[in-house]
Amino acid sequence: MENCRKNCGNFLEGIEFRPMDVSEYPLLADFLYEAIFLPPGVTPPPRKVVEMPELQPYIADFGKDGDFCLCAVQGTQVIGAAWCRYLQGYGSVEDMPELAVSLLPSFRGKGIGTVLLEKFLESIKQRNLPGISLSVQKENPAHRLYERLGFEIVREQADTWVMVYHV
Predict the structure, then answer these.
(1) Cα dist. 60→54, 65, 98, 100, 101 in Å?
(2) Domain containing 21 — which CATH number?
(3) Bridge partners, 101 (sequence order)
(4) Cα→Cα distances 12→31, 58, 99, Å
(5) In this structure, are strands 98-103 and 68-74 parallel, antiparallel, or unpaired?
């Protein structure tokens, strides 16, 4: 966080980090779409890709017991979201909810995602969870952020790692 304070300039000014309101849960479909990592030169899939059965568990009927979302808000616009829920997803680890996180493209690379994740990790400590898991493509530079924040690789697949943060 100290590094971000020195390098983030004014990008954090006016940004609030708070639990997502129930009325904002429909935005998770957009954030799930934005969470899809695309290597340079790869054409983005159509937005309706989030309707695929393998992606729906990340957002369908969000708000059930155990679901939690922290968002980054600038003014009235939600610009980022970090959420977790118990599901059988790409990064599932037994007895842990799985994390998904993304920012709107114009807010990336400014330290906002780092602060969002740091605050999210602080929040889940209050929830008595053993930890959280995630899946990240090996090509995705975000894996370095996850490692910096204390996530560890627990499973390797062909092009992805499953990582865990122990609370």
Answers:
(1) 11, 13, 14, 13, 16
(2) 3.40.630.30
(3) 82
(4) 20, 27, 23
(5) unpaired
Tell me the pLDDT tens digit for each residue of 9-23: 566 889 999 999 999
Task: Using the structure block, give the residue that is written with the tokens 């910096």.
Answer: 148
Q: What are phi and psi of 51, to 5 degrees?
A: -85, -5
d(CA 95, CA 131): 9
Per-residue pLDDT reduced to its tens digit, 88-147: 999 999 999 999 999 999 999 999 999 999 999 999 999 988 999 999 999 999 999 999
Q: How confident is the model at residue 4 (pLDDT cuts 50, 70, 90)?
A: very low
What is the number of domains present in the chain?
1
Domain region containing 17: 2-129
Whether residue 134 is contained in a domain is answered as no
Give the end-to-end CA distance of the chain in Å, rounded to a whole number: 18
Which tokens belong to 166? 């122990």
